[in-house]
Structure formats: C-alpha cells, structure tokens
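dude i think i finally got it to work??
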Amino acid sequence: MQNIEDKAQDEKQEEDVLSPDPIQSTVLTFGVFDGVHVAHQIVIKRVVDRAKALNIDSVVISFDPHPALSISGKAPLVITNTPEKIELLKKQGIDRVIVEDFNEQFAQLSPQEFVNGILVNRFHVREVVVGYDCAFGKDKIGDRWLLKELGQEYGFGVYVVEPYRLSGVIVSSTRIRTAILEGDLELTSKLLGRPYSISGLVVSGKGIGREIGYATANLQIPEQVLPPAGVYAVWVYVGETQFDGILNMGIQPTFGGDEFRIEVHLLRFKGSLYGQKIKMSFVKKIRNEKAFAGPEELADQIRRDEATARKILSS
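look at this
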C-alpha cells in the first residue's frame, strides 16, 4: 500500500488530469466500487446520463483503503486495484474520479458532516445516485432514507438504484470474491461484465522457466483476490498489445518450492518484460498444479498446456 504522501500526490495528479477546472455543480455517486461490476455500471450509467442531461460534471467518489479496515480492522482482498478501478470508471464515461483517503479522521465523519462538508460544500451536488444498500458516515449509520432526508434539507435530489440480480441472486462484490476464490471464472465474468484481471510488476525470478525452454515473467501482485492455484489460459496486455499466455500460480512443487509465485509465459513474444507492469485476464483453467518427476517431464506438460491454451484462446 502506498504511504500517505505518495498516495496524496497520486490523487492530486489524478484530480489534475480529470478535474482541470473548479467544480461548479455535479451529479455524483460514492462508494468503494470494488470490481466496477454490472450492478455498479447501472449506477454509473445513471450518473453519466443525468449529468449529461443537466450539462454538468459526473463524479465518482471512491475510498481507499476499504472502509471495512477502519470499521472492523480487516478489509477484504480487492477485486480491482485503485488504478484499474479509475480506468474502468473513466471508460464508463465518468468525468471525474476522486479517491478519498479513508483514514481514521474521515471514518469519524457523521452522516451530516459527510453530506454537508463533502457532497454539498466541496462537490456542489445537485443529484446523488446510490445503490439500495448505500451506507455512509461514522459506523455506517447513514442509509438511503437518511440521504433522502438530507437531500431535502440541503437541496439536492437522490435516486436509489434497486438491487440487480443474475440467476435470481443479487450481484455484489462479495458474491464476486466468492466466485473468484472458488475458481468459477464463467460466473465471475458474467458478474463483472468482463474477464477477471490482475495486474503486476515483472520482477526477477529463479530462471527455471528459461532453463527448460519456457521463459516466464515473474509477477509481483498487490494484495488482490486470486482464483485457486493452477495453470490458466490468459490474455496478457503489455501496454496496448495483447498476447496469448499461460499463467501458473502456485509453489512450484517439482522444484521443492514452498513460496507462492505467479508467473506467465507469453506465446509468440520475444524480449524482456523486466520492470514493466502487465495485465492478465483469466479465460479458463487448464489444470491444477502438480509435481512432476523432473524438468523434462514438466517441459512436456507445458507443451501440452501451450497447445490447450492456444485452442482455448483461439475460440
């Protein structure tokens, strides 16, 4: 996690990019928006549509770290890290994405202080769009009913988006985390509206892959929810370029490993990725992790994995 100074600087840069002019009047929503899933997208679309109709700015106020850290002392692993979340929100058409530092001081704001001090005085809100389960203020005591009361008091409208269901079950970040942990990539993709992705920095590894003819990029991934260990067919994004790839997550039991590692082999790629940030989208699991008799047997299996990955990704 970034320290406060680095994070504040990043947020300032983000606001400078997205908010070059003083905020005059807005339609906004607020929340964690972890995953920016299909239910979130309904909220976002309403914000964007209303802002366009009123010819004012659309704003998302998100929080980092997760509010649960201040409330319970433990936060869930994220589905999307902050940079990816900002990118996804911008792709939905949001004019300005503001990431609030959910520190202890912020957590102590009463619902009235949050609404008056931030929504009204700072963002000059005209309309607020929230989900049915919105919560705000100290100890999450503010709900949609209180928000409507405060809207009447301070002169802004409130629109509540009702729960969105797939297969009869409400779409939520919690449901998506469960699907990821259970390895249900098909359900995860449906709930997100896109394949599940992770991003990481390529760091130095043991060089085992290169020794057996399959060079891999070893990845340093921030704390993010991951599917079960194993081998996956993935799409790999290096900048704007997409490659087919094979992702392996596990402890490398063939070589007596005990440290969890994430590494990816890019098909039809030559060159070095060391020090670069790359993104991987899960498409389908190929097999579970297993120990092999030695490097030669492992190399044979990787050749089969590559053929399987090519077939999966081509379809």
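Residues 1-20 have pLDDT under 50 and may be disordered.
im so relieved honestly
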